[in-house]
Amino acid sequence: MNEIYTKTKIVSRNEMEKLTKTHEYTLLAVLTVDKYLIRYGRLLTRDLLEIVGEKLIPWNKKRGVRSSIQIAAAVTGYARISINKYKNIKDNDCVYTDTDSVSLT
C-alpha cells in the first residue's frame, strides 16, 4: 500500500496527532477508538509550520459523502441481473448496455 512518496499505516491516536502536525497527508480514517488509517508523505516545511503553528490538528476534518464499496457492488450486480431480461429479448440485437441502460435494435 506504500506509494513512491507516501506511506500508509495504522497508528494510535498519539502517533496520528504527531504525524498530522509534521507531515502532509492525503488520507485519514478512523478505524476504532484508538486506531487510525493514515497515508502521509513528506515533512511540512519549517516556514509553513511557523505560519500555522498549532492549528495543524486537522484529524477531525470533514470528509465528503461516505461510500460503501460493498453496497455499490451489490447495486451494480442487481442492476446487471435485472437488465438481462431486456438484453435477451428475441429478435432484438443488443447494441450497447451499461449499468442502468440498454440500447436495442
From TrEMBL:
Give the GO molecular function terms.
nucleic acid binding; nucleotide binding
Q: Which domain of life is it from?
A: Eukaryota
- Protein name in the entry: DNA-directed DNA polymerase
From which source organism is this entry? Smittium simulii
